[in-house]
Design a protein that fits this description.
The structure is a single chain. This protein has 333 residues and is α/β, with parallel strands linked by helices. It has two domains: 171 residues, P-loop containing nucleotide triphosphate hydrolases (Rossmann fold, 3-Layer(aba) Sandwich), CATH 3.40.50.300; 68 residues, Alpha-Beta Plaits (2-Layer Sandwich), CATH 3.30.70. It is built from eleven helices and 14 strands. Strands 6-7-8-3-9-10 form a six-stranded mixed beta sheet, sandwiched between helices. The two termini are 17 Å apart.
Length: 333
């Protein structure tokens, strides 16, 4: 999806970055540095993806930008407001849906949204009207009078998303909003994110799903071990690799012996072993397939499937971090 900066009536200046961070750091007790001086700039009106493996610093970064966790050092502005100087104003301008869904199980969906409206000074008929709008937005009108404990995982995610939107925030933070959902529910959440963004809300999305990032995000950054290791549009990151990817499924074959068989392979840029496969980054994949097979046959190495493809966003992540995202195998097709 491609979106441009949009103006939200009464919201932040569309010409100002929705999120800016400079040398943002966070160190926990014991000297564990979770975020190590990152710089970010997110334009108003875009969907920005923040990718990384577990423990890379994604959630810590989100919590600092949402004022839930103070930075150890560095600076950040969200919706034009400094997160340290005026955290209360930042919270008035943002919506947040974190991984932990905090829904009261005995409340109905409508009751929960009306209560959330009250927290932002929206009361009476205005609250009822806003709750109705949001229930329709996320497709929960028919379940509005049911207690949330009866909701499926996907329905809870959508209600949590609606609760983050009651005050029409300038910036919406979504921390892995589809983790643990079945493919159909995940696709539904994607549609809601697109619709919310089309109304002008800037979306900052952390995810473990490459297809999610590829389909939703205008730009993205990859964080690993507290550092941003790559950033740009998905197409820019793919084109920067400048190579084909030959994938060799090891199927129990010795990884070291297989790597050795491809030493000095013409046009080989690098090799990466991950899971039970070997990825060869080469200048011309189709032209080298026959040589790959010959070398394996000469060394008596039996492997599984061999394939060649142009780089995917998953390959970009693998190149940047040396491993694939945890959720990649579960992506909906």
């Amino acid at each position: 999806m491609t979106s441009s900066a949009r103006t939200r009536p009464g919201g932040a200046d569309p010409n100002e970055a929705a999120i800016e961070a400079h040398e943002l750091r966070r160190t926990f007790k014991g000297g564990v540095e979770a975020v190590k001086g990152i710089d970010l700039s997110v334009a108003a009106g875009e969907v920005f993806g923040f990718l990384g493996p577990n423990g890379a610093g994604k959630t810590t970064t989100v919590r600092m930008l949402c004022t839930l966790l103070p930075p150890t050092s560095g600076a950040a502005r969200v919706a034009g407001v400094d997160v340290l100087e005026d955290p209360a104003e930042v919270r008035r301008r943002i919506g947040v849906a974190l991984q932990e869904i905090g829904l009261d199980p005995v409340q109905t969906g409508r009751e929960l949204l009306e209560l959330q409206c009250g927290l932002y000074g929206i009361t009476g008929s205005a609250a009822r009207s806003r709750a109705g709008e949001l229930l329709e937005l996320v497709g929960l009108v028919e379940a509005a009078e049911r207690r949330t404990k009866t909701y499926s995982g996907g329905m809870k995610r959508r209600l949590d998303l609606a609760s983050a939107l009651v005050h029409s925030p300038d910036v919406l933070f979504l921390d892995e909003p589809t983790t643990g959902l079945d493919p159909a529910s995940r696709l539904t959440i994607w549609e809601e994110v697109r619709r919310i963004n089309s109304e002008g809300t800037t979306v900052f999305l952390t995810t473990q799903y490459m297809e999610e990032a590829d389909r939703l995000c205008d730009r993205l950054a990859i964080i690993d071990e507290g550092h941003i290791v790559s950033s740009g549009t998905a197409e820019q990151l793919k084109s920067q690799m400048g190579s084909d990817v030959v994938s060799v499924a090891l199927d129990g074959a010795d990884a070291s012996a297989t790597r050795a068989a491809f030493g000095e392979l013409p046009g080989l840029d690098r090799m990466v072993v991950e899971r039970d496969a070997l990825a060869l980054y080469v200048e011309d994949g189709p032209a080298l397939l026959a040589e790959v097979v010959r070398r394996l046959d000469r060394e008596g190495i039996r492997v599984g499937a061999i394939s060649v493809a142009r780089p995917s966003l998953d390959d970009v992540f693998l190149q940047a971090t040396g491993r694939r995202l945890e959720g990649d195998a579960e992506e909906p097709r």
